[in-house]
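Course assignment 3, question 2. Fill in each field.
Student: A.L.
Task: Predict the tertiary structure for the chain below.
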Amino acid sequence: MTITRAAISEAATRIAPFIRRTPVMDIALPGIEKPVCLKLELFQHTGSFKPRGAFTHLVGAKIPKVGVAAASGGNHGAAVAYAAHVLGIKARIFVPTLSSPAKVARIASYGATIVQQGANYQAALALCQDYVSESGALNIHAYDMEATLAGQGTLGRELEEQAPDLDTVLVAVGGGGLIGGIASWYQAKSKIIGVEPGTCNCLHAALAAGAAVTIKPSGLATDSLGASSAGSLMFPIAQKFVGHIALVADEDIRNAQRWLWTHAQIIAEPGGATALAALLSGIYQPAKGERIGVIVCGANTSLAAFNELFTTA
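Answer field:
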């Protein structure tokens, strides 16, 4: 399936009062002929792109009295909690024990009920699904629902308006909601490249196998990119419109975080710096004259964790 451009445009209009139009910034990188366009989505409400999907689910929806529920490594939960807070809706967020304290604290700041159980995202998702079945709460999946994909696709629509000359867009991949939405917007107009950590590579593994497979995610960016399998709705979109998956190492991601701070004074979480890591490391090498866009998609890290990048480098 493909989420249509019309559906993405409708979502963009509906959620416009509730989200920020995030800036773009051109940067020069050694060995790359044209400036690279950074889409600074880490400046979105809650520090990631996720409110786009959350508001697409909730604005105009019929909400049960018990409210909404979501499972998350952190960023999706914060987005659902924030959207629910803005719209006056109850929210219960299920997060695994590996979620960073900074992300859990952000969820709590929006007044949601937090259930922190399970070793990983998949375990938290199972608990959330049980709660939804028992309570009748509205489930908001982090990446495998049409409204999520359409909402995240609004980022692609916005980026095309801001930088209409892009040949290629690099996107970090977890479960695939962001890249699925962006690919649904661009389709064949620009090349879409997914970037995954080598130890959180569910989409790369699925595309290689020709079907969704289950992996055991690990490593630096697990709390944001640690899905154990690619979303079923986005997988055929990826097969059709995602040209390539670049795999980066954790140290490449750390270097990208350091680069963003040193050269642009931007604090990005590991998942937020992953797409840029493919360029800085040379894992993705643009052709001569290729105009590249990079989604910097998240900022939710603690200052202590961020400072370690420089004390241990």
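Instructor remarks: The chain has a mean pLDDT of 95. The chain is about 45% helix and 15% strand.
Grade: pending
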